[in-house]
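Internal ticket #5521
Category: modeling
Description: The requester needs a full-assembly model to guide mutagenesis choices. All entity lines are attached below as received. Residue total reported by intake: 872.
Assigned to: D.W.
Attached entities:
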Amino acid sequence: MMQDLNWAIGGEAGDGIDSTGKIFAQALSRAGRHVFTSKDFASRIRGGYTAYKIRSSTDQVESVVDRLDILVALTQRTIDENLDELHEDSVIIYDGERTEMEDVDIPGEMIGLSVPLKRLAEDAGGAIMQNTVALGAACEVAQFPIENLDSALDKKFGAKGEAIVENNKEAARLGQENVQEEYDHDFAYDIETTDNDYVLLNGDEAIGMGAIAAGCRFYSGYPITPATNVMEYLMGRIQHFGGTVVQAEDELSAINMALGAARAGARSMTATSGPGIDLMTETFGLVAQSETPLVIVDVMRSGPSTGMPTKQEQGDLNMTLYGGHGEIPRFVVAPTTVSECFQKTVEAFNFAEKYQTPVFLLADLAMAVTEQTFSPEEFDMDEVEIDRGKIVDENDIDAWTDEQDRFQPHFPTADGISPRALPGTTGGAHMSTGLEHNSLGRRTEDTDTRVEQVDKRNRKVETAQEEEDWSPREFGDSDSDTLVISWGSNEGPMREALDFLEEDDVSVRFLSVPYIFPRPDLTEDIEAADKVIVVECNETGQFANVIEHDTLTRVDRINKYNGIRFKADELADEIKAKLGQEVEA
Amino acid sequence: MSSDVRFTDFKSDKQPTWCPGCGDFGTMNGMMKALAETGNDPDNTFVVAGIGCSGKIGTFMHSYAIHGVHGRALPVGTGVKLANPDLEVMVAGGDGDGYSIGAGHFIHAVRRNVDMSYVVMDNRIYGLTKGQASPTSREDFETSTTPEGPKQPPVNPLALALSAGATFIAQSFSTDARRHAEIVQKAIEHDGFGFVNVFSPCVTFNDVDTYDYFRDAIVDLADEDHDSSNYDAAKEKILDADKEYQGVIYQDENSVPYSELHGIEGNMSEIPDGAPEDAMDLVREFY
């Protein structure tokens, strides 16, 4: 019996690949199995190859692997694209009756199940349900209780009415029965179900959920792949909590609206991807200089320019760390897992208000569009703490006014953090500006005041460095001489790579770093290791460069920039190669 | 809000650094008068400005204020107002700020109809960068960057606003203090986006659109039988390129502000100490 199941559906964009994949993922999750999904999609609305892959196991899964057990192929290209992941027990479900599929080429050792998807869907009530027929067939192949699929169909189509739900269930039954009747075969799969309850969500959704939990009430954004899901998630939900989402006319407007809302005292956020970050850059300076708390999400995709909008990359680290003219104190927080997207979003709002700075939440496409199962406890709302920082009210405002009773929003305190009076506070009226200013917020070019204010703003970072815990997450063998470091979504595949490496007696210590700035000092860790390898999805090794700069030590790098996230087995092989070990071809 | 607020309470102790004789003095005074007249005080007022001579206004006034980046004042004002509807939000800009770098935002702010006022100090020149053509400069106006004139028609901001679906369009002349303040007051009182284009002459760089020119050219709609609720009558005035009108040119009396259409009510700065009580519902959705 095999517990891992790698399933995929592929076809043309517009074939409903995404929603079909999501339904099957939901069905597996509802059967108490962990799932991890990945999407391969092109930047077009209809046409072009699209696939949705699911890896499922009774254990938590953190990565995709180069293996496909069941493939629902709506086009011949789906088979061609995935040939190298298919194996002798692979089952390909396809519709042999459709004209364009008649001459389907199934590689010799594999099992091709020709299921009349379209015809059975029509029998059930409409050709549109052909994918549901395929899901029913897949349930039979995997010996997976079809009731779980029913439950996912209820969830998906419930709002559309009972008839649609029932037709889909019927379509699934017809697919299942077709395999039972037409194929007298023992397939290699008999997957286990459990009583566990999991939630299934992706990084964008986790960011949106974290924002609401953290008290974010104002969101403005402009649609851009792969960050739009954050806006779509918030739209329709944030209103329930008294907030609003504004679809701005462009990114310049989006960040400035968010800045305005933040100055009015709301916890406020915008999300975009690389090209949008470029447009927002001018305002970063204003956010930092006016000491406005703001969370700016960058869901990275492949660049530069429009690059590959639907593909994975971690190329914006430098942009968020250094972008903008002049020198700007800012925080850069990079969640490493989908559930961390939730936790780090909450944290980002606290950092923003506590330190009155822009906080970049640096996510990446692989994490943002990946649906993953988790125990609901990972999204524990009781754990959410809100720290609004040094907000002063009309009773304590006198302590922060000058001899002429003027409020000093930029008073140079010892910790660098100044009092904050939200508009409406009696006696707190003040000016905020991107110009260099004095403690009152008024323009100055006085040399001493300039230095005082620059130092004050940077002191906030020093304070944060002392007060907060910037530790990385540690995995693997803490005594190993080999240290692997990664950031962002590489944590998942790297954790699984540790298992592969262990099988081959390769011991590795692994640090996953969720903080880019401020960040942990890794000098001691690096000095203690013989070999240091930094893993990231970019070509130049942006994080590796930062580490070399911090620790004055050269590090090795594994970089992937073909647009596809790391896979666990591939990473394990690359690490072995770096260690001079033989890697099986 | 206190009833004994005087317009001078909106003055900061910082002396304006505009050139002596600048139209912006009058524009600002009128804004302060209008704010006081409408029962606002500095602690519930938020003034937003961009860059340029107009952008300095937040420094010379006393209120909550932000001096933003060039051209983006309207989005900032939108964020402030939506996040806290209790605030009186007034956005100030210049003709470059509003009709050039910020032109896109202008059109969309008009469309959005957020309940705030937008006062544009239109001097038909770039003053702070020392005299280049602006989007409202005349076609033949010679400047350092347009030695033979821009050779392109000026932007008609009122027409832009009208075509974008404005619910309040007005124009005033900064030195006609009483009328200007009255018009800005009407913009504040309007339920929606109150747009006022103010002729605010630049005495240093614009020797064409001067006080004398406007004094002679202006036609006050109060002296004419103009019905500002009549769209076609407004359109006719707005497209009349031969005259400079003063007054409320168009007002949609059925204007419904953005927040009402979008169900925004409360002050978003007030949030719970932890996650909201029913936040676990957000997690349950993903079962």
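Resolution: model delivered.
Comment from assignee: Chain B is about 30% helix and 15% strand.
Ticket closed.
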